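= Protein in question =
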Amino acid sequence: MTRVAVVGATGAVGTTMLTLLRERDFPASEIVPFASERSAGRELDGLAVRALRDGPELDGFDLVLFSAGSGVSREWAPRFVERGATVIDNSSCWRMDPEVPLVVAEVNPEALGSHKGIIANPNCTAMQALVVLKPIHAAAGLERIVFSSYQSTSGTGARAIQELTDQAHAMLHGMEPPAPSVYPHQIAFNVLPQVETFKDGDDYTTEERKVIGESRKILGLPELRITVTCARVPVINCHSEALNIETRQDLSPEACRELLQKARGVIVVDEPAAGRYPLPSEASGRDEVFVGRIRRDESNPRTLNLWVVGDNLRKGAATNAIQIAELLVGARREGAPVAV
């Protein structure tokens, strides 16, 4: 059995991790939630939250799941590793470190064999797309991707969800909406063409740069031509994406559907004339990635359009971290090179 810690356990992703460990019957001898000092003593899923502080309480863990932000991960992940644990980190802290594997369970599990104590969990927006893109690349080769995302407020956290619901409630009742505090503009009944921040005069946001860099690293395609626009939409949960994909070899929509119907972790919902296509309202709470609206781009050869939807708290974050943990534990049982 495996002793597991969850750091950042009181956040949206951390609480989802705790739920999934139970739902998936993860073989843990003990699960210990850690959070900030102000959350110490709080009960989560029947477990008492411990404050994250240096000392003997950090000892004896086999696996540590982090979802507490880059600053916390940079400071505390190495401390757990020094004590013999393997860390699976959900922040952006380690993702582009060449010494740290960046892993999507269905896409590049073989990368786990190179870990030195820390494994990075990818950006949620990139992750759900890559579950769909990997089998397409294997069959026809990826040449170029035009990637547009429509991201829910749960990706920002509980305060963002509250901001959306408070503003929407006020507007629906003829009142002035509360001023935005989480987002730079009102999110209710609006679309913001900015996810995260602009830095150093870059015209792309930090979120867009993450999708570009992480997609290239995970697919092993450092020269992949990819351009990204990320928008925040007034949806509580699940990110939606429009992907325009140019392949090296021609891939018909029919062949693409057949390919994705066999892909692990993917559900094809593609009967647009009957009103059946992926929707956030139907993907929420699910661990699979949903794809539909598969059709040719008539303006460019060897190019397809797809619509992809996934639960950003589950597959986009918590589920993939638990899947990585399951792969590590499974490998240890079988005596394979990938081990906790």
